[in-house]
Write a structure and sequence with these properties.
heterodimer, A: alpha/beta, Rossmann fold, five-stranded parallel sheet, 5 helices, 5 strands, globular, B: alpha+beta, f41 fragment of flagellin, N-terminal domain, Beta-Lactamase, Heat Shock Protein 90, five-stranded antiparallel sheet, five-stranded mixed sheet, 62% helix, rod-shaped
């Protein structure tokens, strides 16, 4: 079975560690690539710069508060791109603001999740993402 | 036209009427009197002819008796004599005999003299000597006397007839004069009264005009010097009159402004709204209308005003002019806007602060948990206790931030008003609390509750806060009983959430609704002190009130109200 490719767009080092930690005990074999801002994320998707040999991800975990190009802009770019728009985007963020939620869905995010403060709950959330988006959902075949 | 003229007109016309009355009475009296005199004269005339006849017969009886000595002639003589004396007496007592002196007196005297002559004839019997009788009868004394008596009678009758004619003539003349005077006086009175009436009407008209002018001046002052802008709009939509304040407000001079249409002073959209209001005013659905709107001044800038509109109607109720009052509320609008801005900023601050605080908090919690998980075996008992304190602190801070967020959201949320069946909402909430109810062996019950028009999320937050407080603040090992009832209170529904919990002392009734105010230590009952403050904000936002009544150790009843008709 080919490993699932996950792209984590996150600038907070702590969150990166916590997310990776939560994925580490997962049932599925996966490879997680981390990019730290919106521009890097686009470079990664376009296989530019340092990401020449990057594999197109099966799922993207996207934070909203990013330096330079923020998460909403990245989302809008992905969802208006012919090829990338098929990739499910899970917005994973600290914000629970109604405006953020409606903005993000309006830009065709596949789901919106507020990161719980409690680490156990956070781990559970990551597990659910993994379970739902990777083992339950049937994703389109990559070309 | 001076008042004194009016003043003398009434006495004058009364005097005229009195004089006319007097003239009429005088004329009537003269008529009656005159008629009496004429009757008296006619009676005298009526007496004179019988006197002549009676006197002739008396003479005849006297001669017969003197010639024959027949006693029946003597008896007849006496009868006629008495008759004649009666007539004479009547003449003497006639009210008009003084008018015909000396003829009347002479007639009377001579008649009496004649009677005595005849008496002497009757007393002197000439039975055997008729020649002596005839001689006597032919004596010049006797014949003269006889002729004279009859002449006197004729003269008197003639005089009386003439006098009667004259008198009648005079009486008629007098009556005519009196009537002319009477009618003349009446005509004068009527003319004077008509004149007075017209004079008075003119005066009243003048006074009325003065009053109108006074009112007009008062209006002018009130209109022109009012501190708010005023404009009168005619049926063609032109601003016929404007006041100083409006000119200043819009920075036009009066002349320019009065040439403008009312529509020119505002935006087309605003004017469309005005037209709707005007049609409502014309239909008479409303008498006046107030609203906030924007005017455009001479520089093209928008100015916020409070506008009040009303129609001045004709007597038949049809609209005549539109009076519009315009109060500059730019300053109020500005300060309101600033206040709203600062409120929004404050809420935004509370929101972002609590949000941004969550980020580092997640790091503390996450890495403490990782520390415990990955390095727990290398920590001793004390080390693990420290980790526990840190994660517990993070957990409590998380609750605090959550509550703070919901408090700041309490007035920011702008959900749609919906008709909410509270019974259904309670079913939902009951399901949500089912695990906790089972764990605490609690009962949650409710009466038939009303349907209310409200933002569902707000009502749900209030109910959940009150119910979870009721379940939380309980005596140890007690089975909580929470009941929800509703009753009508005027224009409001009153909802009561009652419990059998620990209760609250009266001195804390107000304090519990203040943010961060807590009555218990963290070890007894955990909480942030924000829940009831959030409830208060929400209830007040929908126009209701919230309060508590309680007895310590017995239980508490929280009641809040919901307007039956939604305020917004």
């Amino acid at each position: 079975m080919t490993p699932v490719h996950i792209l984590l767009v996150e600038d907070n080092e702590g969150d990166i560690v916590l997310t990776l930690e939560a994925f580490k005990d997962g049932k599925l074999k996966n490879s997680i690539q981390v990019v730290r801002d919106g521009e890097e994320a686009l470079q990664y998707l376009h296989q530019q710069g340092p990401y020449l040999n990057a594999t197109l991800p099966d799922i993207i975990l996207l934070d909203i508060n990013l330096p330079r190009m923020d998460g909403k802009e990245v989302l809008l770019y992905i969802k208006s791109h012919d090829q990338f728009k098929l990739i499910p985007v899970v917005v994973l963020t600290t914000s629970s603001s109604e405006k953020d939620i409606s903005d993000v869905y309006a830009s065709f995010a596949n789901c919106y999740i507020t990161k719980p403060v409690d680490f156990e709950k956070f781990t559970k959330v990551i597990r659910s993402i993994e379970e739902f988006w990777i083992s339950i959902v049937q994703l389109p075949v990559k070309k | 036209m001076k008042r004194p003229i009016i003043k003398i007109i009434l006495p004058f016309s009364i005097a005229c009427i009195l004089i006319a009355g007097a003239v009429f009475m005088y004329s009537y009296w003269k008529q009656v009197q005159g008629r009496n005199v004429i009757f008296a004269m006619e009676r005298v005339l009526d007496e004179i002819y019988p006197i002549e006849i009676t006197e002739s017969r008396l003479s005849a009886e006297a001669y017969h008796y003197a010639a024959t000595g027949e006693t029946h002639n003597l008896t007849a003589f006496s009868e006629h004599k008495t008759k004649l004396l009666n007539y004479v007496k009547n003449l003497e007592s006639s009210p008009v005999n003084h008018l015909f002196d000396p003829e009347m007196s002479e007639v009377i005297n001579e008649t009496q003299l004649w009677i005595s002559q005849l008496e002497s004839i009757a007393a002197k019997p000439f039975y055997n000597d008729s020649a002596q009788l005839f001689q006597y009868l032919r004596s010049p004394y006797y014949t003269d006397l006889r002729t004279s008596v009859f002449d006197k009678y004729n003269q008197l009758a003639k005089n009386i007839i003439t006098a009667r004619e004259n008198y009648l003539h005079r009486l008629n003349r007098l009556t005519t004069i009196n009537m002319v005077g009477f009618i003349g006086l009446l005509v004068i009175t009527i003319l004077v009264l008509v004149f007075a009436y017209r004079l008075n009407a003119a005066r009243i008209r003048q006074l009325y005009q003065l009053q109108i002018q006074q009112k007009e001046r008062e209006f002018e002052v009130a209109f022109h010097h009012a501190p708010i802008g005023k404009v009168i709009v005619d049926r063609q939509g032109y601003c016929t009159r404007v006041n100083k304040s409006l000119c200043e407000l819009l920075d036009y001079n009066e002349e320019t402004l009065t040439k403008k249409r009312f529509a020119d002073l505002t935006t087309p959209a605003e004017y469309q709204k005005d037209l709707n209001v005007i049609s409502m005013l014309i239909q008479g659905n409303i008498k006046t209308h107030e609203r906030e709107k924007q005017l455009i001044n001479s520089h093209g800038d928008a100015i916020w005003v409070q506008q009040s509109m009303a129609f001045v109607s004709h007597e038949d109720g049809s609209p005549h002019q539109l009076i519009v009052q315009l109060k500059d509320i730019t300053a109020e609008k500005e300060s309101l806007r600033r206040l709203q801005d600062s409120n929004i900023e404050l809420e935004q601050f509370a929101y972002t602060a609590s949000h941004d605080l969550k980020e580092p908090l997640r790091m503390v919690d996450g890495f403490m948990k990782l520390l415990e998980k990955n390095y727990g075996d290398r920590l001793d008992e004390t080390g693990r206790k420290y980790v526990h304190f840190a994660t517990d602190g993070a957990r409590r801070m998380n609750i605090l931030l959550e509550d703070l967020l919901s408090y700041s959201r309490a007035t920011r949320t702008s959900g749609e008003m919906e008709t909410v069946d509270m019974n259904e909402m309670m079913n939902d909430i009951c399901q949500l609390y089912q695990p906790m109810l089972e764990q605490k062996q609690a009962t949650l019950s409710w009466d038939t509750l009303p349907s209310v028009s409200i933002q569902p999320a707000a009502l749900r937050t209030v109910l959940q806060n009150l119910i979870s407080n009721a379940l939380k603040y309980q005596k140890e090992n007690a089975a909580p009983q929470v009941s929800i009832t509703a009753m009508e209170a005027g224009a409001f529904w009153k909802i009561v959430v009652a419990d059998n919990g620990i209760g609250i002392r009266p001195e804390f009734f107000d304090k519990i609704f203040v943010i961060f105010k807590r009555l218990h230590g963290k070890t007894e009952y955990e909480g942030s002190g924000i829940g009831l403050a959030t409830c208060k904000r929400l209830v007040e936002k929908w126009g209701g009130r919230i309060g508590v009544s309680s007895e310590e150790g017995v239980g508490s009843s929280f009641c809040f109200t919901i307007p039956k008709k939604s305020v917004s």
